[in-house]
Amino acid sequence: MHRVGSASNGNSSTRPRKEKRLTYVLNDSDDTKHCAGINCLALLASAASDGSDYLFTGSRDGRLKRWLLDVDRATCSATFESHVDWVNDAVLVGESTLVSCSSDTTLKTWNALSFGTCTRTLRQHSDYVTCLAAAGKNSNIVASGGLGGEVFIWDIEAAVAPVSKCNDAMVDESSNGVNGSGNLLPLTSLRTINSSSNISVHTTQTQGYTPIAAKGHKDSVYALGMNESGTILVSGGTEKVVRVWDTRSGSKTLKLRGHTDNIRALLLDSSGRYCLSGSSDSMIRLWDLGQQRCVHSYAVHTDSVWALASTPTFSHVYSGGRDFSLYLTDLQTRDSSLLCTGEHPILQLALNDDNIWVASTDSSVHRWPAEACNPQKIFQRGNSFLAGNLSFTRARVSLEGSTPVPVYKEPTLTILGTPAIVQHEVLNNKRHVLTKDASGSVKLWEITKGVVIEDYGKVSFDEKKEELFEMVSIPAWFTVDTRLGSLSVHLDTPQCFSAEMYSADLNIVGKPEDDKVNLARETLKGLLAHWLRKRKQRTGSPAPANGELSSGKDIASRSLTHSRTEVDGSSENDGMVYPPFEFSVTSPPSIITEGTHGGPWRKKITDLDGTKDEKDFPWWCLDCVLNNRLPPRENTKCSFYLQPCEGSSVQILTQGKLSAPRILRIHKVINYVIEKMVLDKPLDSLSADGSFAPGLAGSQSQLQAVGDGSFRSGFKPWQKLRPSIEILCNNQASAVS
């Protein structure tokens, strides 16, 4: 299970504490687009106050977007960003409340007509929240289901005053302070269904609400459906059965058997009598809940059925799934027609008048004609077939080569997304990451700036990786994944502070070339530069000096409690962000992290208003940025020898061992060889023990040292005539002078 923030381990006092992680997600230059598959769709019709139709999309990139719909175009009018993992489903409740669920185990409520205002975070699930179901527009009932086998029924009453401070285990206000300036969504009660009719009651002290917990599901839940009045709920998942619940009491009323594989989609008609189910067994079934039996089964698809949508009269069903195909089926006559085929599995459908929006594992969304008001128009075009009642009949027809011809070849409108990153490689310099996206395009990212520095187009990823190979050795100070469709860079203490480079190698103008730059520290300064400026404006004082924090007693005490820290004295704590660490403000990255309260949160770095403190950020992050303190590092040195190359005329006077610090510029080795060995000119500043670069550790170089020597970062090059010297490391030329 993907986790962005790491919880502390309290099982043993002798084990090191697992500190919270800080992640930043690099966004594409066109941030109005999704960059991963679209898991869910929700439509807000023109009855809204501004008279516009809106489409809401929830993506595997962790964000939701609102699209203003026109006849021939869709414009992104808001991005809803707070979830820290995939958005799996979304529904609209009341006039303008959007409810979403995520693999981060939370539900979030949003002001649907705002510019991305998260009004509440609901924390009750113990695992991924996979699906939602909502009653009619004027009802407040929302159900959620997840991989933990839990189903919760949330009753939201618009007339109740805003909740001030609810039970922390259940509700967080404003998603840990993120995007929390909008109207709060009142919460009245929570009913929990687990798997039988055993009811357990919990009381919320501040409001007096009585959530109801019932136990029943034995395994993961993938699909939910609810009738218009919100009195009946159906659920299904890996148990291959459809369960029916009374939402008013939280009790299970019946169980329907018939599918032979996971149930992935459910629909209830407005009255709650008929239910449609789609399954991984490739079948669609129509159930009569009054008769408690399956009345029809439809063999339409050749693979799993993942999405269902019905006409308003529940006479026809649109279905899509793993076979990339969208079908229309008459539930009475069993006539079926292939509307269209795509290039990706279909995940969800949403009817909008005579059109249907189709979401898939691709980052784009397509609109196709649906003729929902008069579906017979589609059958009149011909090419329809009679749906069988056994799954193998449809597969056999497909094998015989009589695959239906799609009614439509092209969608009437497409909301384009950015292709998701599907392959990546961290290069040896530990600043560049090579990526390949779903379209085959290869790009080079600079992760300390969060931008693409080279777009190579559709070239061989492996060949480009070999071409960009550098003979350098820098410690791994970050990890990367592409679960959200883009690069997520993870920083974990103390490992992230292990990499340093010389300012000269980073081309930092105006800084002494021998100054060492800690890559993680400067990256954190770049990420939090906007927050630091806002914080300074709010407090009216500059950033604190070394070892001081205006309101950071907790941070200082924690740094002393958990481990000794060292002050990074090699660079001034002036808040300056050097050019190699300046992040884009036009497509800023998003931070995902958590502090001591409220759970994980996500926000763009340019949206941080300076109010966040040690409760919201990991203490080690603030200790680095505000106090200039880094975790202690071992002063490790590597022993090695300098040897003359075969055939060299250099005479070996004595044998001696040298040692290397964490990093050392190779020109210092050349100076040492020239002065100490070639010219036999000892330096007074040399001590009995040497230092060298870890990139040469355990390697053989051309020349052997005469006696032991110390490479100090400050000694000056030899001023006399220099001979030509070549230094080899692992038989690779590292430097020539």
From TrEMBL:
Per-repeat ranges for WD: 122-157, 214-255, 256-297
Spans annotated as Disordered: 1-20, 536-575
Top-level taxon of origin: Eukaryota
Keyword Repeat attributed: yes
Regions of compositional bias (Polar residues) in chain numbering: 1-14, 558-573
Stored SMART domains: WD40 (SM00320)
Signal peptide from the UniProt entry: none
Pfam family, one: DUF3337
Family statement drawn from the similarity comment of this UniProt entry: Belongs to the WD repeat WDR48 family.
Protein name listed in UniProt: WD repeat-containing protein 48
